[in-house]
Amino acid sequence: MSLELSKKGLLVKPSSTLAITAKAKELRAKGLDVVGFGAGEPDFNTPDNINATAIKAIQDGFTKYTAAAGTPELRKAISDKFKTVNHLNYEPDQVIVSNGGKHALTNIFEAILNPGDEVIIPTPFWLSYPEIVKLEDGVPVFVRCDASQNYKITPEQLAAACTEKTKAFVLNSPNNPTGMVYSKAELEALAKVIVEKDIYVISDEIYEYLTYDGEQMVSIGSLNDEILAHTITCNGMAKGYAMTGWRIGYTGAPKAVAKVMASIQSHQTSNPNSVAQMASLEAITGPQESVGIMRQEFDRRRLYMFDRISKMPHVSTICPRGAFYVFVDISKALELSYNGKKIETCAEFARILIEEYLTAVIPCADFGFADHIRLSYAISIEQIEKGLNRIEEFLNKLQ
Ligand code: GLU
């Protein structure tokens, strides 16, 4: 057969976070004692009250189609949560429930982009943003944000990157992969540029509950009405409630955007999974204690990770203030040799670690920073200790 496949589809790189995580799982299934610092997936079980609600939903026959943009109850609950927790004024008809955060982002870009529209993505970035933008006919525009600026974009950089083709800017705070959190003052300065340039900001707030050291996520859309009119906020159940597999993400958007997203979704998926929507309603409106308990445990792991990595040779890192990742600069290690051979790339660094030290880490070339790796601390402290011992052993062998 010589039928040509979609040019757009062929351009998309498969997600390396998922590929590395799958590889670690595969090795573990073969009986190997692999430590996985790969995907950012909470190791906790979904809280019991949420599971029980889902089981009841099935038993009650809540297994039919729902409204395409989500059940009215869940959209109302999300609208209430936006207002009370995030100080974002989105009415229920401005809320769209989707099949996970990636689906929410896909629908957002599908609703706002025309071919050639540019989307500014601060670098490093979560690897799926540019791929989703390209799938939706947009052009990712990367702005490098170095360690000296805590990997955060400045208003000057944002303004300089805007052209007449710029449609949107992607903001992710707390950030994957850096763990950095934007302060209110930083967001105010960015908001001014966004309003002045008249572009959308896509604020991905999926790690909102995971902040430390007294840090708190501020929703950029909460700053004033002008910025709210330019803000599309997306979020999801996965990280805060340990619900990765349930696939429920949600968006708050200006009315016109939400309307287009709802139409698109009605053809794409009919509706997000009915049972998972019921579980999400319980997650949002039910007891919130489990969120705090998980956050506390992540915090303990974070401090341990940072302390250990800071003392390791040939690498450096900035203490993360949110999410559950440590972003590690390995540029010095890449100049060294292992067993007489220069390492050169972060992919090679990660390959040696998984194959010879049974430790999975994420090489960050696909995150726009080819001399960094990302370690997720969404695994037990025992696993973290074991994995860090192995990484240290490897680093000690570099010459
Ligand atoms: N967002 C998580 C991560 O960065 C899950 C995997 C993925 O979707 O990339 O690890």
Put the structure in a nutshell.
The protein has 14 helices and 15 strands. It has 399 residues and is an alpha/beta fold.
Question: How would you describe what is shown here?
Answer:
- This protein has 399 residues and is of the alpha/beta class.
- 42% of the residues lie in helices and 15% in strands.
- It contains 14 helices and 15 strands.
- It has helices at residues 7-11, 16-29, 48-59, 72-86, 101-112, 128-135, 155-161, 184-197, 225-228, 255-268, 274-285, 289-310, 346-357, 381-396, and strands at residues 35-36, 95-98, 118-123, 139-144, 166-172, 200-204, 231-236, 249-252, 316-317, 325-329, 337-338, 341-342, 359-360, 362-363, 372-376.
- The strands form four sheets. Strands 2-8-7-6-5-3-4 form a seven-stranded mixed β-sheet, sandwiched between helices.
- Strand 3 (118-123), helix 6 and strand 4 form a beta-alpha-beta unit.
- Helix 5 (101-112) packs across helix 10.
- It is globular.
- The N and C termini lie far apart (51 Å).
- The mean pLDDT is 96.
- Glutamic acid binds at residues 15, 17-18, 39-40, 126, 128, 176.
